[in-house]
Amino acid sequence: MKAKVFSIKGEEIKDITLSDDVFGREVSEGSIYYAIRNELANRRVGTACTKTRSEVRGSGAKPWSQKGTGHARSGSKKSPVWVGGGTVFGPKPRDYSYTMPKKMKRAALKSILSLKAQNDSLVVVEDFSIESGKTKDLVGILKSLSIEGRSVVILKDDDEMVRRAGRNIPGLSILSYNRLNAHDLFYGKKIVVLETAAGNLNDFYGKGEAK
Q1: What is the 3-state secondary structure (H, E, C) of 36-47?
Q2: Residue 210 domain-assigned?
Q3: Which residues lie in coiled coils (predicted)?
Q4: Which end of the chain, N or C, is more open, meaning fewer C-beta atoms within 10 Å of its C-beta?
């Protein structure tokens, strides 16, 4: 498929060929759902912790005799039915992360790129860098491209200066072409892809994809 390449001033300068296997494939909604679910689970911090009756502070002595007091029988003040007692089946520290099949993850990322291309939410821009590392310089480029709100910039490599310039821009995610994540891509209103990064995506996720 063909796509237009824009300058950092927002002007059309040429056309580029994008791989149909990456940007023009049939969208798999199921793989997108499972990829986002997997990423959110892997981000989850399972540090919630409650104390059971064996861990709460208090005496283990029987509060009163089994019979003859008129009270309900009780064996310990640490019982869950007492105020200050232990918690029954409460959360404990755990790891929520799990591994997703690589082929399904790749299918999800390609589906999202295809979905954004179909919805005209994907913009290919000539390669640029922010030598100063200043946020205002990157804001100027995005403004020229009419990019606002929640968006993603896909780099051809790990450009530290662009990342530095973009980290103070609300709603902007900056990703390398080989380290994409489904959550940011799917929820980004606009996806800005550098020209070289577009070619790298063709090679990395295309039919001749790297192992």
Answers
A1: HHHHHHHHCCCC
A2: no
A3: none
A4: C
